[in-house]
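Posted in: Structural Biology > Protein-Ligand Complexes

Title: Requesting predicted complex, iron/sulfur cluster in pocket

I'd be grateful if someone could produce the 3D structure tokens for the following input. Sequence and ligand are given below.
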Amino acid sequence: MGNNPTTNESNPEVLESYFKKYPGVPKETILKQHLLSLGHWFSDAALQAADGALVKSYRLFSYDLVPMSEFKRGEHRRVPEHFVILNGPYGMRPVAIQTSLSPYSPYLIDVVDGRLVMTTEGRVLAEVRFPKTPDYYAKSLPDGTPYHEIVAFGAFITIFRNCQYWGAREECKFCDINENARQMKLSRDFTLAAPVKSVEDVVRVCDEVASDARKYGVSAPGFVLSGGSITKTLHGKSEVDFYEEYIRAIKGSSAKPRITFEVNARPREEVARYKAAGADNIHFNMEVWDKRLFEWINPGKAERVGWDNWVRWMCDAVEVFGPGNVQPSFVSGVEMARPHGFQSVDEAVKSTSGCFEYLMSRGILPRPQQWRREPSTALCKEAEQPPVPLDYYILLTRNWYECYQKYRSQLPQFGKRKAGLLAERNLLGPVHGAYGDYVMLSENLFPDDIEEQINRRSVPFENLEGGSSVS
Ligand code: SF4
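-- Reply #1 --
Done. Output follows.
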């Protein structure tokens, strides 16, 4: 095990003690937060059941608690991108969870009595569904690059696979983008050699995704454009010149998609260019709110942009994009990282809750995504990083929801979207944190036939073979 140990503090009794301690908090979000924090593993039978499921893309970060070199059963080319838990002894309503592998986790996805289930210590907690692969995943470019290495899960495009924040003095300390690209190459299980995707290739695949959506009569896709920072130039272009070209071309494609763009905070003139090119939402991912921790954890961002500019430019961007359309992500839990993070749950929750109040009152939606403690990151190399206490995640998300209720008229609404190619992506909360689920579950915003919609687009989950062995 690496420098990111997994507590064995999980069995049904421990989980139930949290359910009792926080009776007003949806149980589903508590389990989801624990699964994201400690990772989860797959029995042989569960891996077998993942045949035909949407395979994990490793599109940006690894989101795993162990390196690919530890996988002995080809897990990285077999496990699903995400999965849904529902029903079971606690009568859970559906939540979708991004797959984060750890063989040391107490949580095992398994087949029990022929059904795909989530277990801990052999006890079933909920049923599990794996999403089916969309048709476009079977296609490849003439050079052999599969379409899904261009657009992952019908939505996510990592235009530049590396980041020019390089090495200990610049890379964000929780981030394994550059290490992830290295391990993908080493594994030889991914074909994409070039770190940059051409504009023509990206548009071609976006068209194919839109055509799949039309074929199935579901919502047209929206795309998230992401990639590493460009601090100097890439292919002779500055960051804004480089990314603007992609935004314009994708917006002009047959999909006419909504575009969400993730980038460093930039001044109003640059932001206006992204908007004019066709971006609808902008994500200035700030990662951590506390100023001292921002400088420690994001050295490249602190030096190139700085905390004050980051915050000011987020507020300026609201004037360009409109309230609700500026949506920075925060790596929640990283504010408790050792050795310089907050030492108590109370301090950490207080700091980040202050961030929610500041941003939401200004029409900005902070998105807390859980820290996965990936082993090749600077944080895990510098110090042992034990799991962030579950109390922190529960309290923080509860505060997020209270704040959201106060300012919701100027923030995005949940539960309004129709199913796209992957039903659970539009109909449930985001897979990497529990804030969206908290709203959906507290206000019962699911369509009446939610389970049927998810089942229809899942690989078989009952009448399966096999028992709980892990080879
Ligand atoms: S800006 Fe930071 S988080 Fe984003 S890819 Fe670069 S190092 Fe990673």
